[in-house]
Amino acid sequence: MEENEKTFKKNQRYKITMIIIFTVFITFMLTTLGIFCIFLNGKQIGKYVLVTSSEKNESIENKLNKYKTIIDKYFLGEVDENKLEEGAIKGYIEGLNDPYTEYISKEEMKDYLEDTKGNFVGIGIYMAKNTDKNMIQVLGTINGTPAEEQGIQPGDLIKSVDGIEYTADDLNTISEKIKGEEGTIVKLEILRDTEILNFEFTRKKIVVNQVKGSIVNDNIGYIPIFSFNEDTSKQFKEAFEKLQAQNIKGLIIDLRNNGGGIVSEALNIADYIADKDSVLLYEVDKNGKEEIKKAKQDPIINMPIVVLVNKNTASSSEILSGALKDLGKAKIVGTKTYGKGVIQEILTLPDGSGLKITTEEYQTPNRNKIHKIGVEPDIVVELPETVTNIFSVDPAADTQAQKAIELLQ
Questions:
Q1: Could you confirm whether 249 is annotated as catalytic?
Q2: Per residue in 163-214, pLDDT tens?
């Protein structure tokens, strides 16, 4: 009897202990579940708003609205909604990780479109992104401009403008800062190899006359093209016709340090040289859809041609040189080109801002890709190390031009 009573009491104690443990466990689970729900619903705990993993599938608009709510509630400074919106758009576009796709603000669009016409106030340089150095690189200078007169050279890297440092992503910003009212001052800090150089320029109106012809070695025409802007092909034709009237026997087209520009202008020049209906370019979009660009007319230039290229020959310049090489219409002399084989379109949005967006990759007539590859010259010729600027080089020291003359003779 006594033993049964002891057993009963022992079982009772066991049951009570298990009830207590079970109660603690249930309480713990309910508390944990409650905290999890707070995370899940993005509720506020004290001062902090908890962001949840379920937001991965949330729309960008909803996400930005949540950040806006936080900023409105906690941010100490003044809020400029326009700047926030512009920054959000720029960040979104930069997320594509494409150095050639970029947002252009309403204020920048006017200057951007003006540049394509070849008229602006500034110092007269061509620039591009150098993603390896994360800086803006000078591709070349325009004849008779402050940049050329003070000795800015292709390959120079822009470290700062008016004391503010910029990166490769700031191409539009730097362009905007360098431009300004005629007669005003702009200061540039330049990295040239390992040397830091400081320049001070007085801005002036730059009218780009991209194409001027001359005669070398008595009977060889020479036409440098510095960029493909509005009316470049028309100017090229006029320059050639003037040289042709002087009975030239061959033609040098100099595309060195030409960073590109309007694709249709480059194709127009190829059309002057290629046989009618021959393929000049394949444009391929993201879905593999092709657009084939062909010569539309009989050639007006029927003579030996040499095209000069270098590492700064890019984009539309590579389209022209690649087409003439593949079609056997010119010998390419110099060094391998830059390797920009994608095409951008400029889209104007309803608010006046714009988007320059990469839409297609191009291939030469022989289906050669250019992007990150470049155009290989038929004859590789390096310039002497003493030559720092091809626009002001002594003709006798220009080994590439001399090789072109030799081929045409």
A1: no
A2: 999 998 888 789 889 988 899 999 999 999 999 999 999 999 887 766 889 9
∠ CA(159), CA(161), CA(165), 5° rounding?
50
Cα(228)–Cα(210) distance, integer angstroms: 8
User: Is 346 inside any structural domain?
Assistant: yes
Residue with tokens 């949005």: 349
379 has pLDDT over 60? yes
pLDDT at 407: 97
**Containing structural domain, residue 395:** 214-408
Average pLDDT over residues 389-405: 84
Note whether 85 and 154 are same-domain residues: no
pLDDT in tens, 96-155: 999 889 898 888 887 777 666 666 789 988 887 887 899 999 977 887 899 989 999 888
Q: 169: helix, coil or strand? A: helix
Residues 285 and 186 in one domain: no
Render the burial of 54-63: b for 16+ CB within 10 Å, e for the rest: eeeeeeeeee
Q: What is the DSSP letter of 19?
A: H
The mean pLDDT of the chain is 85
Instruction: Work out the pLDDT band at 277, boundaries 50, 70, 90.
Output: very high
Q: What is the CATH number of the domain that holds 131?
A: 2.30.42.10
Interatomic CA distance for residues 61 and 29, integer angstroms? 35
**Domain membership flag for residue 348:** yes
Q: Decide: 363 and 374 in contact? Cβ < 8 Å.
A: no
| Candidate list 315, 316, 317, 321, residue with the active-site label | 315
Residues 402 and 261 in one domain: yes
Catalytic residue, from 129, 325, 329, 340: name it. 340
Q: Output the six-digit token pair for 216.
A: 């070398």
315 carries an active-site annotation: yes
pLDDT at residue 273 is higher than 80: yes
Sequence-ordered list of residues with C-beta below 8 angstroms from that of 304, at least 6 positions apart, any chain: 249, 250, 251, 331, 407, 408
**One-character DSSP codes across 42-60:** T-EETTEEPP-GGGGGS-H
Domain-located, residue 113: no
The total number of structural domains in the chain stands at: 4
